């Protein structure tokens, strides 16, 4: 049969020795200290993520004309979803491009000088 080792015989130091080890390593031995350090690291990562998002959105011209709600929403989406921009997804919101026709949406026709007169040079 196997004999179960407990405590120091199993290689586990008593709590008082472990607390001294953590102090020697420069760690805070108080309860909850690791949780606080985790929150600080998480907050730093969130700030870095948002800063990178602002840089990527700026490089891709999402901050050029913030004079309408759609452009502000596009910029906000670009900052939050910046990895999609790096994969080539356009997050520019364009609402005036479609007009409602019955139950379906159709694209508005593009009027060029040649089509305004009704003539086509073909």
Largest β-sheet summary: 2 strands, antiparallel
| Strand order of the biggest β-sheet | 1-2
Number of domains: 1
Rg for CA atoms? 30 Å
Strand content: 5-15%
Given helix and strand content, the structural type is: mainly alpha
Written description of the protein model:
This protein has 122 residues and is mostly helical. The chain is built from five helices and two strands. The protein has helices at residues 15-24, 33-59, 69-80, 82-86, 113-116, and strands spanning 98-101, 104-107. Strand 1 and strand 2 form a beta hairpin. Helix 2 crosses helix 3 (69-80). The chain is elongated. It starts with 14 loop residues before the first helix and ends in a 6-residue tail after the last helix.
